[in-house]
Design goal:
This protein is an alpha+beta fold. Helix content is 51%, strand content 17%.
Length: 636
């Protein structure tokens, strides 16, 4: 509990202790007779103890010309009740209202805290070695290229590369995956992961603000500010609704008594004009208490917040509630192939030489690729397996979706697919092997090709199956790879459709074509790895980047970021979004339903203030508890 909450709780307890005996006396249950003015003064004590803040806020609201809020509603209603002699009701309403407020602030605070605990990746310090001694410093002060030491049990504060030491890392706070990852010298390491076994010396590769942990926290913290339509709707709704309610209450207080006085109808029920007016004003006050919109206003943002938090705990970062809403309505999904459906770590299965030795072919290819982060490039470099001397390479040009041209040892080398060779005016030798064929040309003549092949991710098939089950009608694979490879992968993984040999721009037009079939309730998502598909990621209704851990491009271009490589997370993301939206709808229907019912009862004089406030606080508590369910998404 925070200090403020403790103070509120104390006030509530004191007020309740004072209130109960007074109430029993005023109801005649305890036979003590007190004159009315004394009773009034005594009731004021618990009323002001617990209601001071509400009265003050209402007053401030009036002064700032923002009259209509719940403090205002509560103030008029309770003062109205007290003026009419219903001391007990007036004080009880204020008391219960404050109980509700306290509960709500506690629940919101608690879920906020548990989410930040779930996302416990904010590093507090970094160790550096000074004269053989470890010193703790603010990670903000560490410069790029410094050596930091991470002991077992500590969080890695900055991204870097292991210089010395072996260990296994727990990356669950980043990916939601609890299996430890082994690391050793030369391997990349991300901030936010926890070192479990050995001491590691890490050479940092970026500053604190640029580190993965900082970026993720930024993203999660900013997510709540991108409002969904339901949230915007509620904000607008409250702005219109509260004044309407106040005017309706005013009408309820004034029109029926005037009508009675003018026509004489119903006058027989009252002992005089005072009783008539008293009755209707009290009904109007009850009406105000009931109409307080707190439950809906609180529970909707809380549901989204809890949903976003629960998702990030699973390694699914959603950049705003608006995307959560869109994700729930996705019916068409397009996928990139390499790195998304397939692993993207190609194995070199063969090299076919034409004019130069095989080793040289692979060497030229690897050297030309030295700067690219494309999965194909990484695989060629891995197959070459030797350190690359940067000085041998010049003029590197990456042609997205086609390949690379560069000068290696002064020779013009081109490495890429058939399209690239054709643009260079070269004839390509067909290959009888199935796989992705990477052709190499040297100084304008064809030199041979490398056959590489990729495998499906273990869960790709299951993911497509899962997507079908949750009602995704169309799954389309878009790839820049050759038709034969695309067909094989599409058949194996079970997508409904595929398009091959696409340049990044063609992928955009494919997605635009698909988007003609979309509507508000039929959205399109694109899933990619962020390598050369950023335009499509941002063009789709929702762009989902997978395996984005450590890939800045993907984190920036996508709306939903899956921290690990597992395609099943796509299914999970959709399920989380659906659950969250369902809960929001439940709360709207439930809270408004009860409100409308109570309002009708009050208008007909069938509900008193007790029922009103209990209904209000009760609905709020239930709605908040329901909203918190959005956080529990582990087993979806
Ligand atoms: P995908 O759509 O499967 O992700 P890309 O659009 O990234 O594939 O690439 C399409 C094709 O372009 C690849 O299959 C490959 O033949 C060629 N290509 C792209 N980048 C490179 C590269 N860096 N080196 C060699 N070939 C490349
Ligand atoms: Mg790709």
């Amino acid at each position: 509990m925070t200090k403020k909450q403790k103070k509120a709780l104390t006030q509530i307890i004191i007020a309740a202790v004072l209130f109960v005996p007074l109430f029993l006396i005023s109801e005649g249950i305890v036979p003590v007779s007190l004159p009315k003015p004394v009773l009034f003064l005594l009731f004021l004590v618990p009323y002001l103890t617990v209601g001071r803040d509400v009265l003050r806020k209402a007053f401030l609201g009036i002064r700032n010309k923002q009259v209509f809020d719940e403090n205002f509603l509560m103030t008029i209603a309770t003062i109205g009740a007290i003026v009419l002699g219903e001391y007990g009701e007036g004080v009880a309403v204020m008391l219960l209202y404050q109980v509700g407020e306290l509960f709500q602030s506690y629940a919101v605070g608690k879920s906020r805290r548990s989410i930040t605990e779930l996302m416990d990746i904010r590093p507090d310090y970094a160790n550096i070695e000074v004269d053989g001694q470890l010193e703790q410093v603010d990670p903000d002060e560490i410069e790029v290229g410094s050596i930091i030491v991470v002991k077992p049990g500590e969080k890695v504060p900055l991204d870097g590369v292991v210089e010395e030491g072996n260990s296994s890392m727990n990356t669950s706070a980043l990916t939601g995956e609890s299996r430890p990852v082994d690391v050793g010298p030369g391997m990349q390491i991300l901030s936010g992961s926890i070192n479990m076994t050995g001491v590691l010396k890490i050479r940092t590769t970026c500053e604190f603000d640029e580190s993965t942990a900082s970026k993720i926290l930024d993203l999660v913290e900013n997510a709540a500010s991108r409002k969904s339509r339901s949230e915007n709707f509620i904000a607008k709704f409250a702005r219109v609704y509260t004044p309407i309610v106040v005017y309706a209450a005013l009408a309820l207080a004034v029109l029926p008594p005037i009508f009675c006085m003018l026509t004489g109808i119903g006058m027989a029920n009252y002992s005089g004009y005072l009783a008539l007016w008293g009755d209707w004003i009290l009904r109007a006050c009850t009406f105000l208490v009931i109409s307080c919109p707190c439950a809906v206003v609180i529970s909707i943002p809380l549901s989204f917040f809890a949903g976003l938090g629960g998702a990030s705990n699973q390694g699914i970062l959603i950049k705003g509630s608006n995307y959560l809403e869109t994700l729930a309505n996705v019916r068409i999904m397009a996928f990139d192939k390499t790195g998304t459906i397939t692993k993207g770590n190609f194995a070199v299965t063969d090299t076919h030489r034409n004019t130069i030795p095989k080793e040289e072919l692979l060497e030229l290819a690897a050297l030309a690729e030295c700067h690219s982060s494309h999965p194909i490039s990484l695989s060629l470099k891995a197959a070459y397996g030797k350190a690359i001397d940067q000085s041998r390479i010049e003029d590197v040009q990456e042609i997205s979706g086609q390949g690379i041209t560069a000068k290696v040892d002064g020779k013009a080398v081109a490495v890429g697919n058939t399209k690239l060779m054709r643009t260079l005016g070269l004839n390509v030798e067909p290959c009888h092997k199935v796989g992705t064929i990477i052709h190499v040309a040297v100084d304008g003549s064809y030199a041979g090709h490398v056959v590489i092949s990729d495998e499906l991710k273990e869960t790709s098939r299951a993911a497509m199956e899962g997507l079908r089950k949750v009602g995704i009608e169309k799954t389309v694979m878009l790839t820049g790879d050759a038709e034969s490879v695309a067909r094989k992968v599409a058949e194996e993984v079970g997508v409904t459709d595929y398009h091959a040999e696409l340049l990044p721009a063609d992928k955009v037009s494919c997605v635009e074509e698909l988007m003609k079939e979309t509507s508000d309730k039929r959205r399109l998502a694109f899933v990619g790895d962020g390598i050369n598909d950023a335009p499509v990621l941002s063009r789709a209704d929702v762009g989902i980047a997978m395996g984005a851990l450590g890939s800045d491009a993907a984190i920036e271009a996508a709306d939903v970021v899956l921290m690990d490589d597992d395609p099943l997370k796509i299914v999970k993301g959709v399920k989380i979004a659906r659950k969250c939206i369902r809960i929001v709808k439940e709360n709207i229907v439930f809270a408004l339903g009860i409100k409308i019912l109570c309002l009708l009862l009050a208008a007909f004089g069938l509900a008193n203030m007790w029922l009103a406030i209990i209904a209000d606080v009760g609905v709020m508590i239930l709605a908040v508890l329901n909203a918190i369910r959005c956080m529990h998404v582990k087993n979806l």
